[in-house]
Amino acid sequence: xxxxxxxxxxxxxIVVVTGMGIVSSLGQGKEDNWTKLAAGVSGIHRxxxxxxxxxxxxIAGTVDYLFDQPVSAPVLSERLASLAAEExxxxxxxxxxxxxxxxxxxxxAPVEVEWPQRRALAAEADAAQPYTPEVALEISAxxxxxxxxxxxxxxxxxxxxxxxxxxxxxxxxxxxxxxSGGTAIQLALESxxxxxxxxxxxxxxxxxxxxxxxxxxxLLSALSTHNDPPEQASKPFSKNRDxxxxxxxxxxxxxxxxxxxxARGARILGVVAGCGEVADNFHxxxxxxxxxxxxxxxxxxxSDAGMTADDIDHINAHGTSTPENDKMETVGxxxxxxxxxxxxxxxxxxxxxxxxxxxxxxxxxVVSLLTIEHQRIPPTINYAVPDPALALDVVxxxxxxxxxxxxxxxxxxxxxxxxxxxxxxxxx
Amino acid sequence: MIDQSxxxxxxxxxxxxxxxxxxxxxxxxxNSGDAPVTDxxxxxxxxxxxLGSVDFDKxxxxxxxxxxxxxxxxxxVYTAGLALTDAGVAGNEELLKRMDMIVAxxxxxxxxxxxxxxxxxxxxxxxxxxxxxxRLQSELRPTLFLAQLSNLLAGNISIVHGxxxxxxxxxxxxxxxxxxxxxxxxxxxxxxxxxxxxxxAYNAAxxxxxxxxxxxxxHYRDAFKPLFAPDRKPGMATGTGSAFLVLESRQHxxxxxxxxxxxxxxxxxxxxxxxxxxxxxETVRTLFANARKQSPKAGAIYSSASGVEPATAEEASVLKxxxxxxxxxxxxxxxxxxxxxVFGIAFAALAVAEGKLAAAMPGVxxxxxxxxxxxxxxxxxxGHWRGEGIGVVEAI
Lengths: 428, 396
Hints:
The complex is a heterodimer of chains A (about 425) and B (about 400). Chain A is built from 13 helices and 16 strands. Chain A has helices spanning about 30-40, 75-90, 115-125, 135-140, 145-150, 155-165, 180-195, 210-220, 260-265, 290-305, 325-335, 350-355, 360-375, and strands at about 15-25, 25-30, 45, 60, 105, 170-175, 200-205, 250-255, 270-275, 315, 345, 375, 395, 400, 405-415, 415-425. In chain A, the strands form three sheets. In chain A, strands 1, 2, 5, 6, 7, 8, 9, 10, 11, 13, 15 and 16 form a twelve-stranded mixed beta sheet that branches. In chain A, strands 3-4 form a two-stranded antiparallel sheet. Chain A has a two-stranded antiparallel ribbon with strand order 12-14. In chain B, helix 12 (about 280-295) packs parallel to helix 13 (about 310-320). The mean pLDDT of chain B is about 95. Classes of the chains: A alpha/beta (about 425), B alpha/beta (about 400). At the A-B interface, helix 3, helix 4, helix 5, helix 6 and strand 6 of A face helix 5, helix 6, helix 7, helix 8 and strand 4 of B. Strand 6 of chain A pairs antiparallel with strand 4 of chain B.
């Protein structure tokens, strides 16, 4: 019989985090990111990667310091993920170089052939003839670009990461839109709880800010158009919030059973105490107006963690800075936490990092555990005009020292995706 | 000791392919040995297995919902509805509220005419990047973005059919389908889930997707020949289709009086590095050895081989060693990527349910006649580029 100290109140293996890595527009690594997050620094800037002529939104939190030349989204996503995973595995000390002793759960953005490739194909066609989908197929089939097949497969980023880090088995690539990072951690948690492995690597990565991606979100009226100054555009929970700011980055976490981590004397950074998930079938891009799916998701997470609302000290908000999200997140929190919703400090890392989409859930889980480590809550910057309709204790503009033991980290996405994680300090 | 109440039962199957729609049509077409339905003209010289006409209203009653989806999503949502109906779960809000969902998906259709026209103009534009911004802003339809997003197949299933217990989308071509089934199976066995919907959908009639496979010369471009036929040229003949399964714990199925079709007793996956010849052979051989230990009475193999070489030849060498009748799923419905393994599981479930294998394809030595009364079938998947998997389905 397994030692009870390694099991939670439901008799399942306790799952802990022993390594973390992060890359964002603020910088590379936990130290740089934490220093800037705690100081309220924004990573949002004017886009230089591509011309922004005629675009309504001209800002983003792109990661521009890794490549000299423009690269395809999957190439950048892989690099971001690699750097974050390297940091996480090094901190954890689990396994050996290139031999991670468990599976990989990787949240990655969907991929497709991009405009540089489309234009290159068109350039290879007869300039005197109209360029049609049929001609595009004929040019593709000339076999001059065999590498583009692998580059634009949906499984390639995770496959390469599995090669690099030597994770075990076939990696799982996840897309649950803006909840993907949370889902990657959830799948790793469930896998360790089932006893399939002692360790798992969960990554969320997104390097897909290019013109078309920006335009698509812009056409859905999801993006902030407060382009000047860029660092003030993302303003979650403010009355004048007007959309999210696209961004790039990656977060990686090494999850391990407490038993395994203890046996090898690993430093435990925190506990993945619970996770809740509920799909919303109200609308493709909007939350159910009654907030029921978000409420149920929060409740599932608490119950999965064996906690009640009173045990939660801080909310790491999804907080995208869209009018819709911040309102619905508040509705959900208010229903679950009642009067306490006004007293639990809440903050959105997206005010500084922007919305890293597929990576957000993983990045924010890392920041949540750093918050516990430092007992200091990073601010929601640009909180100049609080929205009076959102009765929350927003940690506005400057960091706040606080006793933080248990955090809920929310992730909500298009397609009715809702994932809530409960993250805690070291097991008692 | 295996807890029998945590057995995974298949209690619903939804199928839509070039053969038609629904369990009965597929059962009879598979058993009859009729030639598969193929099209060589829609995209001249590319052989695909096309979809016939579908009355989407039957499973997606609101036209507004249909307009929000492209074809891959419509066929997926439609087929998910068939599976839910087959399982007797459709419309049962209490069950759907706690039903888990794992969808294996890639992305959806683009407006290829707009893409080509923009690429055409940019060849001579003075400021091509600015012109690209301009044209995309005026010609991309906002709804098309949602029709392309991988997780919006699952999202639309939630909206149209009300499956909301959970919603996870796995990506990664053939492997994602194996992992969807594997994860649902593991969750049910471990008591993390009682009821799950898994599946995927693919639209083969897309020139941009044909182009993606053709970057590496992987599409089949010849008159139809079944997989594993000695004189078949390499390449995959892709197929439009969708397959969904309702998986359920035995305990849960019995409690609600659901009639099982078959049980899923084993799912495993692996990743050969494919850097040296024989990597795939080695990996598939191990998968088979482990699966056959689990199910010594296996009487046939349903292979989801793609036809891309050398993967298919390496798989074939292991299939030969098994000395069991083989049926290539993609010879019947085409290569459907994310849903390929799900098709294999579904076809195998139908076969063990009536104790009868699909009719053998002529000219394929591996497709030997099977004895009647087959009780257990192995389902193998070797991805065209990566990822290997296996499943076992047994009669109840």
